[in-house]
From TrEMBL:
Organism: Parnassius apollo (Apollo butterfly)
Section of the entire sequence shown: 56 to 385 of 400
Compartments, record wording: Mitochondrion
Keyword Ligase in annotation: yes
GO molecular function, one term: tryptophan-tRNA ligase activity
Taxonomic path: Eukaryota, Metazoa, Ecdysozoa, Arthropoda, Hexapoda
Stretches with biased composition (Basic and acidic residues): 181-204
Protein name (record): tryptophan--tRNA ligase
Length: 330
C-alpha cells in the first residue's frame, strides 16, 4: 500500500506555493483514500536561528491552516516532528551512512551556507533528517514541490546504502509530482526564482493569511513583461505564466481555458481575474484557520493525538532497523 509522507517547515508563514505545491495535494490524497502523514518540521527549522516563542506560534498557525485546508486528523496523521523522537534517532543511523562529500555538494546547502560565517552541522544534516522523516514511516510517496527533489535523491541513496550495509529495511520513497505546475510556483517579484518563505520582499509571495486587499495588491504589483497579451509559456514568459498557473490552481481550470478566456485582456486586466480567483479560493480557508487558531487547546489536542499515532508507527520501523544495525534492544 502507498504511504504518503510530507512536511512543512515552520520558518515563516505558509504561502500559496506551499499550499498548492504540498498542503492541498496532501488533502486530495487523503480524500482519495491514501494514508497521509503530515508533520510540521520544527527540527528542520532549527538549522537556522529561530526565536523559540515565534517557532511555537508558527507551529500552531500551521496546524490551524492544515486543518482548515481539509486535513482530517482521524483519517490522516498530523503532528509535530519533534514530538516523535524516532526521527532524530533514525537520523543518527542514517548520518553514519551519509558522506560529507555528498552533503556538502548539494546546491541548497551550498547556497545557504555561502553567506554564513559559521556553518552549523545541522544544516549539512538537513537532508539526512528529511530522509529519516520519510523512512521512519516507510514512506513510499512524497508530495513536494520541485525544490525538494534533490533531498529525495539523498533519501533514496540512503535506502540503498542501508540495504547494502544491513539488509532491506525501507521502500524507496518516490516524489509525487503534479502536472499542473503546482510544484514550482514562482516569486511574484522575480519569476526566475521560486516563491519562498525566506525571500526578503513580502510582495514576492501570497500568504494564506493575506486579506483580499493584500492579495489584490500583490498580484497587481507582480512582475510580468512588456507583452500585453496573456499567454502560457513558462519557459519564455515566466511572469505571466506564473499568474496563469495560480489562476488555474485557484479556479480549477486548465491553462488553455484560462488563456482562451483571457483573450483580449491585457495582463493588467487579467491580474484582476487572477486576484479574484485567489481571493475566492483563499478566503474560506483563511476564515476557518482564524477560527481554529483561536482554539489553541484544541490544536494542541490534535497534535497530541497525531504524535501518539505517529510514535506507534515510528517505533515499529525503528525497532526493526535498530536490530539490523546491531543495537542492543534490552
Ligand atoms: P518547506 O517548508 O520549504 O515547504 C513546504 C512544501 O512546500 C513546497 N514548496 C513549493 N511548492 C511549489 N512552489 C513553491 N514555490 C514552493 N515552495 C515550497 C515544498 O517543496 C514543500 O513540499 N524540507 C522541506 C520540509 C520537509 C519535508 C520532509 C518534506 C522536512 N522533512 C519530509 C517532505 C518529506 C521544506 O523545507 O519544505
Amino acid at each position: 500500500p502507498r504511504r504518503v509522507v510530507s512536511g512543512l517547515q515552520p520558518t515563516g508563514e505558509l504561502h500559496v506555493g506551499n499550499y498548492f505545491g504540498a498542503l492541498r495535494r496532501c488533502v486530495r490524497l487523503q480524500q482519495q483514500g491514501d494514508d497521509v502523514m503530515l508533520f510540521i518540521a520544527d527540527l528542520h527549522a532549527l538549522t537556522v536561528r529561530q526565536d523559540g516563542q515565534l517557532l511555537e506560534e508558527r507551529v500552531l498557525d500551521m496546524t490551524a491552516l492544515a486543518l482548515a485546508a481539509g486535513i482530517d486528523p482521524e483519517r490522516s496523521v498530523l503532528f509535530v516532528q519533534s514530538a516523535v523522537p524516532r526521527h532524530a534517532e533514525l537520523c543518527w543511523l542514517l548520518a553514519c551512512l551519509a558522506t560529507h562529500a555528498r552533503l556538502a555538494h548539494l546546491p541548497q546547502y551550498k547556497e545557504k551556507s555561502a553567506t554564513m560565517k559559521e556553518v552549523p552541522i545541522g544544516l549539512m544534516l538537513y537532508p539526512v533528517l528529511q530522509a529519516a522523516d520519510i523512512l521512519v514511516y516507510r514512506g513510499t510517496h512524497v508530495p513536494v514541490g520541485a525544490d525538494q527533489l534533490q533531498h529525495l535523491q539523498v533519501a533514496s541513496q540512503l535506502v540503498r546504502t542501508f540495504r547494502h550495509r544491513y539488509g532491506p529495511a525501507f521502500p524507496t520513497p518516490r516524489p509525487l509530482l503534479p502536472d499542473d505546475g503546482s510544484d514550482r510556483i514562482k516569486s511574484l517579484r522575480d519569476p526566475s526564482k521560486k516563491m519562498s518563505k525566506s525571500e526578503p520582499d513580502p510582495k514576492s509571495r501570497i500568504l494564506l493569511t493575506d486579506s483580499d486587499e493584500t492579495i489584490t495588491l500583490k498580484i497587481r504589483k507582480a512582475v510580468t513583461d512588456f507583452t500585453p497579451e496573456v499567454t502560457y509559456e513558462p519557459e519564455t514568459r515566466a511572469g505571466v505564466s506564473n499568474l496563469v498557473t495560480l489562476h488555474c490552481l485557484a479556479a480549477d481550470k486548465l491553462p488553455e481555458e484560462a488563456v482562451e478566456e483571457a483573450a483580449g485582456l491585457s495582463t493588467a486586466q487579467y491580474k484582476r481575474e487572477v486576484a479574484g480567483a485567489l481571493c475566492a479560493a483563499l478566503a474560506p480557508l483563511r476564515a476557518r484557520a482564524a477560527e481554529l487558531r483561536a482554539r489553541p487547546a484544541h490544536l494542541h489536542a490534535v497534535l497530541r493525538h497525531g504524535a501518539a499515532r505517529a510514535r506507534l508507527r515510528a517505533d515499529e520501523t525503528y525497532e526493526h532497523v535498530a536490530s539490523l544495525a546491531g543495537l542492543t534492544r534490552t
